[in-house]
Write a structure and sequence with these properties.
Length: 455
């Protein structure tokens, strides 16, 4: 017994990581079911360890370099399972760096197995610098960002999430109390850009069909399947599991099957007449959704959007002659940045404060102003053919948007029945009725979409 006490005594003193009793990981998970408890503890532990590793400048340099997407003026998601073996400092890989920065609290929960369990139970976890920070040049010498951790459930009430910093600073960000973040930060979250797809079933690890993200590909699937797979990323989870970038898959469809006819540029000689009335009986006269454009800011407008940087737009077209919806169409994982939203001013500063048990430390804060008067962003070309020869007096279109949230009930890659929002019942964001012979004016739906049509 004496030797056991000594071992415990020296074990405690060998573990000199700062522990903030108020924010202990176990405090957030004690009332959760076993699967949610495991996933929440893993995500918080991984996020805390990433924050610790960001105290290493070489790791900061690596994150900045691999994140920058200069062609899009945005930041890439860094999928941990894809980049785990990247060399960070010439001798240590990404996962080796992570293992070096596992602290006392995390070791108590997972020992030396944090990396392995994260890869097994959280395959879509990623690191992401928020896009709105792109125009702010991150000085990796002087600034180590905080880490905001997205968890399956909020932690201490409505939309509460943990903030970690390598200095030992910890806090809760209460998303419902304000509409913009305080710190310069990196997100640890479930990927919005990628779907981990089983190519035997074409369902992701949640059991959600790939065709809910891209319903329009089904009619041309034999031709598109190989093209989309060519753009996929191999994984450690077996030859039949790949990561597919959903927006890139949409671009594959668009390049091959979007409408490229004459109606995109001019009306074929009808003058003021209705195009469908003057067209010859055998003419191919499609109605085409030209482009969409968000007309109201989506950026940090509602609680719970802190980790959301993209949405999936769903279009359903009502055929009044047949009395049913047809031509279900989606633009998946479209980044808000592509829609033209960014702060009009932003700056970064370190603030020194005296924290209990930590002393004086510096934490990076940001301040920015968003242009609330801006009412339109970049247009997104669609060129989607809605109908062809049907001579109907009008049609109705519905617009919905949704995000697949980070809710995963199964703890491995086996199929489970999901309980997520699906395209079939996504919330309707706008409705409008278009007459075929109206001029192609801007159409404002009741919420955020303006649709331009050619006839």
């Amino acid at each position: 017994m004496k030797y056991l006490i000594l071992i415990l005594f020296f074990g405690v003193f060998a573990c000199k990581c700062p522990i903030n009793e108020q924010y202990l990981i176990l405090n957030w998970t004690k009332n959760l079911d076993s699967i949610t408890k495991l996933r929440t503890e893993l995500r918080l532990s991984f996020g805390k360890t990433i924050a610790n590793a960001l105290g290493n400048k070489k790791f900061r340099d690596y994150i900045k370099k691999i994140s920058e997407n200069l062609s899009d003026s945005s930041f890439k998601e860094i999928l941990f399972s894809v980049h785990q073996n990247d060399l960070v400092d010439g001798s240590n890989s990404f996962k080796q760096i992570i293992k070096k920065y596992v602290d006392c609290e995390v070791k108590t929960l997972f020992g030396d197995s944090l990396v392995e369990k994260t890869l097994l139970y959280d395959p879509c976890v990623c690191l992401k610098i928020p896009d709105f920070l792109f125009d702010l040049n991150w000085n990796t010498v002087d600034f180590a960002p905080c880490v905001y951790v997205q968890t399956l459930n909020s932690l201490d009430g409505y939309q509460d999430y943990m903030v970690y910093h390598f200095s030992g600073y910890q806090n809760l960000i209460k998303d419902y109390e304000y509409t913009k973040p305080e710190h310069y930060y990196i997100m640890v979250k479930y990927s919005e850009d990628y779907s981990l797809v089983n190519t035997d079933t074409w369902k992701n690890e949640k059991g959600i069909s790939f065709f809910e993200f891209l319903p329009q590909v089904q009619s041309n699937w034999p031709d598109l399947q190989s093209l989309i797979l060519d753009k996929s990323i191999t994984t450690m989870y077996g030859s039949n599991f790949v990561f597919i970038a959903k927006y890139e898959a949409y671009k594959v469809w668009s390049q091959k099957y979007s409408y490229h006819g004459t109606l995109l540029s001019q009306s074929p000689g009808c003058g003021e007449q209705c195009l469908r009335d003057c067209a010859k009986q055998d003419d191919f006269v499609p109605t085409t959704l030209d482009y969409v454009q968000v007309t109201n800011p989506l950026f940090y407008q509602e609680p719970g959007t802190l980790f959301n940087e993209s949405t999936t737009l769903i279009f359903g077209f009502w055929n009044s002659g047949l009395g049913s919806f047809e031509n279900l169409f989606a633009i998946p994982s479209i980044r808000f940045k592509k829609l033209g939203f960014k702060p009009k001013s932003i700056y970064l500063k370190n603030i020194y404060n005296n924290y209990e048990n930590l002393g004086y430390i510096q934490v990076p804060y940001i301040d920015f102003q968003y242009d609330q008067d801006k009412k339109s962003g970049n247009k997104i070309n669609v060129n989607y053919e809605i109908t062809s020869k049907l001579k109907l007096p009008y049609f109705q279109f519905l617009v919905g948007s949704f995000t697949y949230k980070d809710i995963i009930k199964n703890c491995n890659l086996e199929y489970t029945q999901p309980y997520e929002i699906h395209a079939s019942n996504c919330p309707i964001q706008g409705v409008d009725i278009i007459s075929y012979c109206e001029p192609a004016l801007i159409r404002h739906s009741p919420s955020f979409i303006a649709c331009y049509f050619n006839y």
